[in-house]
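FAQ: What does a ligand-bound record look like?

Like this one, built around NAP:
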Amino acid sequence: MKVLITGAYGQLGSSLRKSLANDSEIEAVYTDYDSLDITNREAVKRFLEDGKFDVIINCAAYTAVDKAETDEILAAALNTVAVGNLAEAAAASGSKVIHISTDYVFSGQGFRPYEENDEPYPQGIYGRTKLEGEALLTSLCQNAMIIRTAWLYSEFGKNFVKTMLSLAETHDEINVVADQIGTPTYAGDLANAIHTIIRKPDWKPGVYHFTDEGVASWYDFSKAIFELAGIEEKVNPITTAEFSSAAKRPQYSVLSKAKIKKAFGLEIPYWRDSLAKCLKLLQK
Ligand SMILES: NC(=O)c1ccc[n+]([C@@H]2O[C@H](COP(=O)([O-])OP(=O)(O)OC[C@H]3O[C@@H](n4cnc5c(N)ncnc54)[C@H](OP(=O)(O)O)[C@@H]3O)[C@@H](O)[C@H]2O)c1
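The answer part, i.e. the structure of the complex:
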């Protein structure tokens, strides 16, 4: 099986490189901005025509949620138009697509885990451009899976876990929002799930949700990071209103994973167990 991974040096892309590394039955081609700028329609068309890939996994995205509020053109170019480029070229070359989306497509006003067919209602530019990317993909390519995820962290790139660890080096106390609820998700777990999915004999297009198991606030997440890392740090719970940010964050963004677990027979780790594993890797 020949697989193309775009955005291969971001958090999820790097986690996929790690997951696929020892799979001799998968020939993986890894690209990032320098080798394949997915906003370049002609380049994408040529690359997919020449490559004859069975599956394209799109990990490239504009992920700077606050910056997107004042950078809509670039956010839309990457999260919407470029997804259309991949969809169009994949449909023409007969490749399947796995595209990653986000909990930010929802309003965050819910009180029970979001299911795939719940009404989306993004609160900011990032979520809106990602939702429009989903729509474009679905309209241009029938052989597409969309996997919405949330609160990703890993040993790669920039993320909340690394921010907390570095803040602890310079601050005695940290204020962390305690009234936004979701699920911390180790990118390695999502990468392993994608690896399992592409190895399954039957392809099941559609929208899916994937996060780790369990529920936490950002405050709970930060307390667990310090506890599991063995770092003494005072964490103060604060409200969303006390923490200023350019983009509005969903208050509640727990995703239901029932569909993806049933469709692909996945067992998903509990978030604290995966956090402990990632911290060990970071502390090596
Ligand atoms: N991070 C989260 O908490 C989170 C939550 C929910 C959903 N997601 C979704 O999960 C997916 C993976 O996120 P991530 O955290 O792994 O993102 P990431 O670390 O920001 O990686 C994105 C990658 O895309 C690359 N890229 C940027 N512009 C490109 C272009 N024009 N052509 C090709 N590649 C380009 C980036 O390269 P440069 O670094 O060189 O710019 C980077 O390597 C995204 O779809 C994101 O929306 C993430």
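Follow-up question: can I read anything off the structure? Yes, for example: The longest strand covers residues 96-102.
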